[in-house]
# Entry
Amino acid sequence: MTKDEVKDYRSILDKEYMDKDTEIDSSISYISAGALGLVLSINDKFIIIKTAGFKGFLIASLILLLAALILIIVRKMITSKHDIKMLNYLTEIKDGANEEQELKLLDLYNECDTQLSIIRTIAIACLLIGIAFEVTFFIINFFK
# Structure
């Protein structure tokens, strides 16, 4: 990488640092929070949780939805740490990278990308399973 290429790449990373995966993570957060809020609304208007059956579905749902929210927060923290690490490394090689440095840069990126992908996949799974449990709980108790 030439000096200009490193500088351009650093600019790209700076921008990505600010808005990396924001839309997807925000969507997961909003949907999880909304699903958690739905429990309160349904309890108020349709189903009294105190007397409802199959509370295990509801408890599992709440735990999974909360886990999805926590995982997204953790993911954002890891993303920030990784971006800082990458920016610091790019600052070190500001005069241009040799092949070894380029490989290290790629390894740093791949390592974090894999980790972040796993966390997001688990968060999405928690969200979907949590919503499925919540819907199951409400269907069972609504027609009871």
Remarks:
- Residues 3-142 form one domain.
